[in-house]
Amino acid sequence: MQHPINILERYWNFTEFKPLQEDIINAVIEGEDTFVLLPTGGGKSLCFQIPALAKEGICIVISPLIALMKDQVQKLQEQGIKAIALTSGIPPQQLDTLLDNCIYGNYKFLYLSPERLQQELVQERIKQMNVNLIAVDEAHCISQWGNDFRPAYKNITLLRQLQPSINIVALTASATPKVVEDIIKELDFIKPKVFKQSFTRPNLAYMVLHEEDKYYRLESILKKYTASSIIYVRNRKLTLEISSFLEKKGISATFYHGGLSNPEKDTHMQLWLNNQKQVMVATNAFGMGIDKPEVKTIIHFNLPESLESYFQEAGRAGRNGDKAFAVILKNNSDEVLIKNQFLNVLPTVEFIKQVYRKLCNYFQISYGEGEFSTFDFDFNAFCKTYDFSSILCYNTLLILDRTSVISLSRQFHNQVSIEVIATNAVVFRYLETHKNLELIVKSILRMYGGVFEHDTKINLAKIAEKASSNEAVLISALKQLDKDEIITLKLAKTDAQVTFIVPREDDKTINRIASVIEQQNDLKQLQVASVLNYIKNDTTCKNVQLLSYFGEKNISPCGVCSVCTKTKKRNKPQDIKSLKNQVIELLENGDLSSRKMISQLSCSEDDLKTVLQLLLEHQIISITKTNTYKLFHR
After folding, report:
1. Tens of pLDDT, residues 621-633
2. Where in the sequence is the domain holding 370, given as residue range(s)?
3. 168/79 same-domain check
4. Is residue 529 a part of any domain in this protein?
5. What is the rounded distance in angstroms from the CA atom of residue 406 to the CA atom of residue 476?
6. Rounded to whole angstroms, how far apart are CA atoms 413 and 441?
7. What is the three-state SS of 472-535?
8. In the predicted structure, residue 7 carries a pLDDT above the cut 90
9. Hey, which residues does 253 pair with through a beta bridge?
10. Which residues contact 338 (CB under 8 A, 6 or more apart)?
11. Same domain, 176 and 212
């Protein structure tokens, strides 16, 4: 068996482990059931990847996120390590082949969604595999008190029956003490080895700033700290608005959200990763698995939905150990906004039943049928058809996804069907004068024999590959053929795919998960209350507040957060007289706004406000009609 440090150096080019990694890896190699709580950036993946590589056989990895599974598999494959991900959209015949590869093909990693464990085929093949480890990633999903509880995670204990002698390692980056206890119980651990790293990040300053003009504060922070940054916002529209605003202010920015096509996501991501853009403005769809250690600031323009998600997102700053900032910008309207966004849009069990019935009808699924059938899904058209509130309906679909009733993949792609309406002779005469279309048309005719007889769905990616072209050129060509009456073209843009995980049973399907839905709604209320508590409490160190929430005790104030720095300033006598003189000197040269003054003075905004108030009271300065300050005698 290879030594873990040799594996680390061979595949990852590191010569030493991060804190706790080596102890965790040794415990896993020795066959111990192991619980791992490491903060974001702590190197959780290596804690199961290295033990799996050190031993003969294959490691089964349970993960709830398709994007994360694909990302990890791709990275392993790039390092020459054989890995497979079984996601929801794989057809049965291909699934059969992939599982055979896991048994006979010397693969080291099999990534599974928990839903896949419900399939008898998958269970039967796992029994035949030479499994060396079971890793449960994002393990908080198994706890009903976890931030993203998924009932399908309860099925993971099946692996105990299928491979009774194999140990399990459970990993998470955010879990309260109640969640930790629940994970250990649900996975049937006996005398587990528990590894918890303190969530303290001495280099990370947590700041909560009250701002009426958030845009101005964004600009000033990003001009002061010009290194790489992420701004998290509430919706897709804001990603575009804020990135455009920053660009106009001379700050390079791009944006990211779930509605972008995969090529657009990759392009925007690379611009930011390669430091061609300073700022990434994103929804919370961005960040999972991103490895960029030099991020200087994480700014939440809107309040996060929970302290769990906030801690993970904020933890993406300063992974290189340099001083970094995690900033929440708040104002008086935020409490209403967070309740509207996360609480007032929680669907009831009855509403979920209604949406599920309509979804089945929409795709003409008969009662008792539909298991593992996949459909392209135009979400907006669905909402319009049944007059559903888009937000309530979307949240319902997320609940159905999380509770393994459906699988919802959110990605834009083109759904295309064509029929050739010209005769064979006309088509070939047409191609004589349109040579640029010849290869595309011939590729379609060879791939789709029935295209002359009836409307035929076509696969753009396969045609583009055969014609040595790309999808954009192909669509343009099809539009030209349609205009010239060679074909009829139906081109629809879908924004998702839906896979039905269980057979249709209408209300019975939802009744099985009703208690889970209600419990999760209660949990969401508690989480929002915790966020509001955090932003309102300006007397306790922000680091102490966060770490206490995650169960750490005896924590000293950090000295660098917004509460600690304010306390220091309060306790340190300021040279008000000197600042008064500096303000008067500035105003000798003309009227100035407080913003202009703060940009030219090395003082806090609070100190400047104090001085301006004193000067106004003593009638040394006055306020003009344009809200600037001027010396009283000028």
Report:
1. 989 888 899 997 6
2. 341-412+497-524
3. yes
4. no
5. 34
6. 21
7. HHHHHHHHHHHHCCCEEEEEEEECEEEEECCCCCCHHHHHCCHHHHHHHHHHHHHHHHHHHHHH
8. yes
9. 279
10. 302, 303, 305, 528, 531, 532
11. no
